[in-house]
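Hi team,

As requested, here is the filled-out complex form for the protoporphyrin IX containing FE run. I kept the field names the same as last time so the parser does not choke. Let me know if anything looks off before we queue the next batch.

— J.
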Amino acid sequence: MASAARSASRAFLRSSGARPAARSARFALPAQVRASTRRGYASEAPAGKSSSFGIWGIGLAVAGGAGAYFYLNGEATPKGPFVPTQADYQKVYDAIADRLANETDYDDGSYGPVLVRLAWHASGTYDKETGTGGSNGATMRFAPESDHGANAGLKHARDFLEPIKAQFPWITYSDLWTLAGSAAVQELGGPKIPWRPGRADGDIAACTPDGRLPDASKDHRHIRAVFGRMGFDDREMVALCGAHSLGRAHADRSGFDGPWDFSPTVFTNEFFRLLVDEKWNQRKWNGPAQFTDKGTSTLMMLPTDLALVKDKAFKQHVERYAKDSDVFFQEFADVYVKLLELGVPFKSKPEDRFVFKTSE
Ligand code: HEM
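And here is what came back:
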């Protein structure tokens, strides 16, 4: 079934003339033609053995804590601590965009959706009462957090970013993962996601307990409890869930299966339009309860997705976003920026955020 849905989605992309990870006229994606800078890399993060970073990792963490790094990237002997500028972070963005354009033999043709999910799961562990969790720390490098059921499949995203980390060793994993989440939204045709650095990598002791991320089999009360714990209101919860215009569920990861719409590598408001316009029937299959569209039986919705139209307060926002893509893009950008910054002790101000240039 998974491959049938995948073929349907690929067939749509082919018949619509869109290459995977390519933009429609409305959401034109850049023609990414730069040569790959792919290089050999370890498939595990240096922290992969889970209890230690390795000597150079500890060195970086120490440097990171001081907020300065020595930039040893083939340049002349450094004269002092390397303090990365916006231009340096744009280089990281460009390298991610290049890799996204070149590594198309994955899922529906793009790693973008799984990068968006990595940034969200790194950030969505935040608990406003205790100040624990959030993207600061990148503790998903370590078991047990990497093994939490909700994080199944995110190794693909972490591994995808390893060559970027090797190319720019001065960036912390926590900054890299969130920058990649911002880059992926922009490169897949979504709104600009302003971003700022300042996250330090933590150690295994900072791993969050299992159960902080949402469970897709639950209802509106669960959504409010989980996102309320992070500090979001109803409108923000609905906007964030619009990221389900991207990617798909995988039977071998979450147990659920299929894409939410016909263009899973293009950021759109389709998730909301389909929630409102389609009829969704319970799928008859040997898997967890999920829903399928009456029209083609190739798309899916999770129980938590349908909770967004069953609950009246949520539904008014679903309808707003279904009607007006610009409103959705603006409100999504604002709340995704907020998500990626939860619990981060920035020294910079919000107005210091960088707006990255999307690739041409
Ligand atoms: C009630 C809240 C949410 C629930 C229950 C939920 C659940 C899920 C599940 C079960 C999957 C499928 C994973 C797989 O099998 O690979 C998924 C995928 C995804 N989620 Fe969510 N999610 C929620 C909110 C969000 C938010 C807030 C974002 C981002 C802002 C997001 C972004 C994504 C993306 C991009 C994918 C596709 C990943 C891929 O293609 O590999 N989700 N989500």
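Two things worth flagging: Residues 247 and 264 are 5 Å apart (CA to CA). The beta strands are 248-249, 258-259, 280-282, 291-293, 300-301.

Thanks,
J.
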